[in-house]
Design goal:
Layout lengths: L13 H11 L4 E5 L6 H11 L7 E6 L9 H8 L10 H9 L4 E6 L8 H10 L4 E6 L9 E4 L15 H13 L10 H10 L4 H8 L7 H7 L3 H4 L9 H4 L1 H10 L3 H9 L7 E2 H5 L9 H10 L4 E4 L5 E4 L2 H13 L3 H18 L9 H4 L6 H13 L3 H17 L3 H12 L7 H17 L3 H17 L3 H17 L3 H18 L2 H17 L3 H18 L2 H17 L3 H18 L2 H17 L3 H18 L2 H18 L2 H17 L8 H16 L2 H12 L3 H8 L6
Parallel strand pairs: 1-4, 1-5, 2-3, 3-4
Antiparallel strand pairs: 6-8, 7-8
Helix pairs in contact: 1-2, 3-4, 4-5, 6-8, 7-9, 13-15, 13-16, 17-19, 17-20, 19-20, 20-21, 20-22, 21-22, 22-23, 22-24, 23-24, 24-25, 24-26, 25-26, 26-27, 26-28, 27-28, 28-29, 28-30, 29-30, 30-31, 30-32, 31-32, 32-33, 32-34, 32-36, 33-34, 33-35
Length: 719
């Protein structure tokens, strides 16, 4: 057996090694593929060692990295096998005769630059029936009968919990090679885990990073990974350049690409989180007229990975290390600004084209945005940094409903604030639209005072532009803030004005929302029949225009009004329909609202199990989206559930946490059936517990931070 001795042990790769051994038992040509530095050679050697007993004719390793001419592939094999007495004859015949019917395993390493010679390997396999070839190549050999095994990255540590994984194990072992006293500790474990995640489990990159612990701490290495290509150098001196630096490893693959694929690879650096084939085709110009035609070479080289998206469509992405290299190439070509502008304009066009009409948001209209989250962030970042305020403003306006309905309220609010802070470049209509969006997101974050100012500014602009639909939206928002701030008379007056403007503008979706708000105002005044009539009117209008988020919201409000009429069974059926509509809509805001009112109805029907499930699901939505007011409602609801279950001390703690968080957040109670329900349970709880026990439990709840209280309510923390 002529396999090279390894200076270090193979770390991890248990599953991959078993896969390779299994595949070798069922084929005669197996190619391990993957990008440079992924560990193909080490895995091939380990697999060959494992199956050596199956090949009594021997196992021979032949490296080809230094062989530049495809015509020298078979002569190199002949020389290695001592079958070199073919002078003047055919090396193929000489090698075939030398092997004969022996059960021999040839391990042919690094064939990606010698592909023109690989058809001769297929002929060699035909002549030698007992021969098996295990090859490594950054690209498939594309021979008949070839089985390919793409070597994956090493496993990564979870972001939560101890940094246990193959990539961390490799980092520690290589760090100990240069710093024998290095150990994974509680102090450095998080940084080591972050390093491995940043390097996406690429073995060569991890080894090069670990080699720097003799001069840098893991925390310092992590900071310097912002320029990883400059950091990941200084591999072992005896190794070739392509294994001593990460840039060298990528150079090797890049230089093998045809020029159109090289140019496309550089441009793909502007995509964050991958891209669809359609998005890549939009990069077409006179330099790269056919991106789809140049893409397969990038996939074959493993510089770009192809995977299936959520809907089964192909999506193309690259490791962040390769992306940094691609952007360097793009910078060198002087194409960065143009490529980033085209990227931003492309996603702006897609966002505006797919932007649902107000009130019609559903999961089918928003789901395409999820895999493009990083691209949308990259487009906004570039537009703001490049002073392209008009692009940033239009894109933020187009994404507002997605941010709201997917629970990204904090993120969306932050982007809009950055756009509104730009001194120039924003059209008045876009500014007004962004002010309404910012106010609406602020309402969900309980920033009522700031939201009120946003809506008033937007109303002034829309009025000046003589846009009744826009002014109606601003008035609706302003009415909502007045209602939340405990000023129902003002809220009702503004809402009625908004209703008139929406009707004049023909804005049916706007009218639905205003009708529902007027129902809430009536409910807050104790006018149950008036509230129910308004809610039913809004629900009917929502159904007519097919707005599933509004069907969820209005349906839940009709259910609560039905409960107030004394028909609990009908209310439960109605709110179940509302929750279903919320799920179908894809609007987390609408789903949360329906779940919250569903919890109230379950409480009033003395069904703590259903109530708890509703409140916990709603609370998880609030936790993920930063909606503090909704979360506090859920905490009180779960306090009522605990009371109904007989766990009075837990109930007092949850109520204490909720009421304290309400006060310290500067929020106010809103009138309604939920408030009445929680107040009744709290009053009963005070009567059932002796004063000392109640005050002690209440104080325990008061001591909880928002995050601690939410975690405890969801069962992931103590209370």
């Amino acid at each position: 057996m002529t396999l090279p001795a390894q200076m270090t042990a193979l770390v991890g790769r248990h599953d991959e090694l078993n896969d390779a051994v299994r595949m070798l038992a069922g084929c005669r040509l197996l190619t391990l593929t993957g990008p440079g530095g992924i560990g193909k050679t080490r895995l091939a050697i380990a697999a060959a060692e494992r199956v050596a007993d199956r090949h009594p004719g021997g196992v021979t390793f032949i490296p080809f990295a230094s062989v530049a001419d495809p015509d020298l592939v078979l002569p190199t094999i002949a020389l290695t096998l001592a079958a070199d007495d073919y002078v003047g004859g055919s090396p193929l015949r000489a090698v075939a005769e030398h092997i004969g019917d022996r059960r021999l395993l040839l391990v042919l390493d690094n064939l990606e630059h010698l592909l023109p010679a690989t058809p001769m390997l297929a002929e060699l396999l035909q002549r030698c029936a007992a021969l098996t070839i295990l090859a490594t190549s950054r690209t498939p050999l594309r021979l008949y009968g070839e089985r390919r095994y793409p070597v994956p990255s090493l496993t990564l540590p979870d972001e939560a919990g101890p940094p246990a994984s193959e990539s961390v194990d490799l980092f520690v072992e290589r760090a100990q090679d240069v710093e024998p006293g290095f150990e994974l500790t509680g102090a450095n474990g998080a940084a080591v885990g972050d390093i491995c995640r940043a390097l996406e489990g690429l073995p060569l990159a991890i080894e090069l990073a670990a080699a720097r612990v003799d001069t840098l701490s893991p925390e310092e290495i992590l900071v310097r990974l912002e320029r990883r290509l400059d950091l990941l150098t200084e591999g072992a001196r005896e190794l070739p350049d392509r294994q001593r630096t990460i840039r060298g490893a990528i150079d090797w693959s890049y230089d093998l690409l045809p020029q159109p694929s090289q140019r496309l690879f550089a441009r793909l650096g502007v995509f964050a989180g991958g891209a669809t084939a359609e998005a890549i085709d939009a990069l077409s110009d006179e330099v790269v007229p056919n991106p789809s035609g140049a893409l397969p070479a990038l996939v074959d080289s493993a510089l770009v990975r192809r995977r299936r998206g959520a809907e089964g469509e192909p999506r193309f992405e690259m490791l962040e290390t390769f992306r940094e290299y691609a952007l360097e190439r793009l910078e060198a070509a002087g194409e960065v600004t143009d490529a980033r502008r085209r990227h931003a304009e492309q996603y702006l066009a897609s966002a505006e084209r797919g932007r649902p009409p107000l009130g019609h948001t559903d999961v089918r209209q928003l789901e395409w945005l999820e895999p493009e989250t990083d691209n949308l962030r990259a487009a906004l970042t570039w537009a703001l940094e490049a002073g392209e305020t008009a692009v940033a403003g239009r894109l933020a306006a187009a994404l507002y409903r997605w941010w709201l309905d997917s629970g990204r309220t904090v993120e969306g609010s932050g982007w809009i604030e950055r756009v509104l802070a730009q001194p120039t470049g924003l059209a008045e209509a876009v500014r007004a639209e962004l002010l309404v969006a910012h106010g609406s997101l602020g309402m969900n974050l309980a920033r009522y005072g700031a939201a009120e100012e946003d809506f008033e500014q937007a109303r002034t602009i829309w009025n000046r532009l003589d846009e009744p639909a826009g002014e109606a939206r601003a008035l609706y928002g302003a009415a909502g803030t007045r209602y939340r701030l405990g000023r129902p008379e003002e809220a009702g007056e503004l809402a009625r004005h908004a209703e008139e403007l929406a009707e004049r503008a023909g804005d049916d979706a706007g009218r639905v929302r205003v009708m529902a708000l007027l129902g809430a105002v009536a409910e807050g005044k104790g006018d149950t029949p008036g509230a129910k009539a308004r809610y039913a009117q809004a629900l009917g209008a929502a159904r007519m225009i097919g707005s599933t988020p509004d069907i969820a919201r209005c349906g839940a409000q009709v259910a609560i009004a039905t409960l107030a009429d004394g028909d609990a069974a009908a209310a439960a059926a109605l709110v179940e329909e509302a929750v279903t509509a919320g799920r179908v809509s894809g609007s987390l805001a609408a789903l949360h609202f329906a779940l919250l009112l569903g919890g109230v109805i379950a409480l009033e029907r003395f069904d703590p199990e259903v109530a708890a499930a509703r409140y916990r699901e709603a609370l998880a939505i609030c936790r993920d989206s930063g909606q503090r007011h909704g979360a506090i409602d859920c905490l009180e609801g779960l306090g009522a559930v605990a009371h109904l279950d007989g766990d009075r001390l837990r109930a007092a703690r949850l109520f204490g946490a909720a009421r304290t968080l309400l006060q310290t957040s500067g929020l106010t109670d809103e009138p309604g059936a939920d408030r009445d329900c929680y107040d009744r349970h709290l009053a009963a709880l005070r009567a059932e517990l002796d004063a000392q026990a109640f005050e002690s439990a209440w104080a325990d709840g008061q001591a909880k931070t928002f995050d601690e209280a939410v975690a405890a309510a969801l069962g992931t923390g103590s209370l």
